[in-house]
């Protein structure tokens, strides 16, 4: 996104130290500047994003857990500016569409295979 839109500011957050390090390396490998910081979903984020792009977690150990994702999706509208957009990539079997629809009142499947789906919603 940053390479296609050089004027945007990129923020990447996660609760996992491994994910944060991976984010830093991804930015560096692509020659992109961005802010990488620890945050439990929205605990240390702003509330004026134009886009929220995520591949949200669904594991808690070996179990499938929707709690962090439910928080991410339910609170996303309050973290987006007017006409802000959410884009999520996820395993196709996960039940994200109803959660997105409830939070935004809309949900579009941008692409879907037997393994993955890309969902979009706008404020």
TrEMBL record:
Q: Describe the location of the Methyltransferase small domain by residue ranges.
A: 2-119
Matching entries from Gene3D superfamilies are given as:
Vaccinia Virus protein VP39
Task: Show the InterPro entries listed in the entry.
Answer: DNA_methylase_N6_adenine_CS (IPR002052), RsmC/RlmG (IPR046977), SAM-dependent_MTases_sf (IPR029063), Small_mtfrase_dom (IPR007848)
Which PROSITE patterns does the UniProt record give? N6_MTASE
Q: One Pfam family name from the record?
A: MTS
Where would you find the membrane-spanning parts of this chain? none
Tree of life domain:
Bacteria
Molecular functions (GO terms) = N-methyltransferase activity; nucleic acid binding; S-adenosylmethionine-dependent methyltransferase activity
User: Which keywords accompany this UniProt record?
Assistant: Cytoplasm, Methyltransferase, rRNA processing, S-adenosyl-L-methionine, Transferase
Keyword rRNA processing in record: yes
Q: A single GO BP annotation from the record? A: rRNA processing
Record-given protein name: Ribosomal RNA small subunit methyltransferase C
């Amino acid at each position: 996104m940053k390479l296609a839109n050089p004027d945007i500011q990129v923020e990447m957050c996660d609760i996992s130290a491994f994910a944060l390090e991976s984010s830093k390396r991804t930015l560096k490998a692509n020659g992109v500047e961005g802010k990488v910081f620890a945050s439990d979903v929205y605990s240390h984020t702003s509330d004026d994003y134009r886009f929220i792009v995520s591949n949200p977690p669904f594991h808690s150990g070996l179990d499938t857990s929707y709690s962090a994702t439910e928080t991410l999706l339910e609170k996303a509208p309050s973290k987006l500016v007017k006409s802000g957009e959410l884009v999520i990539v996820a395993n196709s079997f996960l039940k994200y569409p109803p959660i997105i629809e409830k939070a935004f009142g809309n949900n579009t499947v941008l692409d879907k295979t037997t393994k993955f789906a890309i969902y979009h919603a706008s404020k």
